[in-house]
Model the fold of this input.
Amino acid sequence: MTIKLDKSFATFEDAKNYHPGGVLAIRRPYNFVENEYPIFFESGNGGKVTDIDGNEYIDMLCSYGPIIIGHREKEIDDSVINQIRSKGFNFSLTQPIHNTLAKKINELIPCAEQTIFVKTGSDATSASIRAARAYTGKNKIVRCGYHGWHDWYLAANIGEHDALDGHLLPGLSPAGVPRVLANTAFPFHYNKIDELEEIVSNHSKDLGTIVMEPIRSYNPESGFLARVREIAFDINAVLIFDEITSGWRLNNGGAHLTIGVNPDIAVFSKAMSNGYPMAAIIGTKRVMEAAQNTFISSTYWTERIGPTAALATIRKYRYCNVSEHLCQIGERIQEIWISSASKIGMSIEVGGISALPHFSIVCDDPQAANTLFTQLMLEKGFLATNAFKATYAHRDEHMLNYSKSITEVFSTITKSIIDCDLHSKLKGPVAHSTFRRLT
Ligand SMILES: Cc1ncc(COP(=O)(O)O)c(C=O)c1O
Done:
């Protein structure tokens, strides 16, 4: 399809007058295909999104994970609208729906003995770190994965700008993070138990928290997470599983339930409420009680829209057996990548859990190849990168169309790699793999 983006470009220029960089971080066009990527969306429906110029795409990114059932999902939206119309949603005191949701989560996730509801993933990880520090009285953190934008996380990059590379988003700048936080957060890589052991042996006296995504890009090697659990016990550290992306994908709750290792705290957001702002910190009573010894509070955390959406999402998620659908769709996508690539003779590596698969193109300039992939897929009507987020709204017809498009796009990329002309096929610069200032 021919993509016209006149309104998007004009709105972006206007946005630069009002917002630093026009739009925030990962949503900047240079992270995708500058000059070709839709910058502003107008609407979504099921598994599709439409940009402000009227171009419609099958949505393979799903708002980076929260749209787990589909855009504009009637059952969920109706329950929210009913709440707003019939009762209102934001009062000075908490509302009993918080108990209802906490009980539901406790029914599904046994370590959720106590719960604090917040609004974003970064809220949840930061509040969980505060509670853990309050519990242990120890400052230092060891961490693995991506956990958001707050100081405690970016502190790992102070003085060493590549420490967070290999943890989803490389090159995050710690400008503005107090230098005194240097040496408070130490990263280790997934499945590298020796890295964790070394950090522990160097810092065990002050190390009170191990925070990590229990699964994401790779499956855990045998015994890896059990050993992390053991280390946390040995050094009296709180083990936090960040399930903000992995939660509600493999089953009706946390990935740790499938893996069989229990944390002291787990944090959830994204898929738990189909796009409505909502997040939860859950954990054992023993550790969560420490939240009472510190100040963790925010005006919007007690409102009712997020919990209403979460209850409706969890209900639908369970009776439609959404996790099974997500895993099936994700496996199908992986098969499409593998079989198309092998037919064409293209070299790719496929990874990620079934509901969140990704691939990398093996060539001299993978970032240019990824950029061309996104550009060509846009032209075929897909908002897609090399990472796929499955949603219940992805249906057979989308998969058939996707499969056909992948074969054609992989062929074009392979030919370009052979002809050494990836760059000349691009309609803009190669996408950035890190954040940068716009001016
Ligand atoms: C594992 C994980 N933790 C934390 C976050 C931060 O969540 P938010 O962007 O809602 O602040 C994300 C977001 O992508 C995430 O994937």
The CA atoms of residues 376 and 412 lie 9 Å apart.
